[in-house]
Design brief:
2 strands; elongated; 46 residues
């Protein structure tokens, strides 16, 4: 994940990561969850 994050920052692009592993959230600039088929954004992690 560190490699993906650093490459995306260096290239000024985005990566969309889909996972059920909540340990990955600290790598995110933005988190969007799907609950009952609806999208819901969450605050940016500290």
């Amino acid at each position: 994940m560190e490699l993906i994050r650093s490459e995306m920052k260096a290239r000024d692009t985005a990566a969309i990561i889909v996972t059920h592993d909540t340990r990955m959230t600290h790598y995110a600039d933005r988190i969007v969850r799907i609950v009952d088929g609806r999208l819901g954004a969450e605050p940016v992690p500290a």
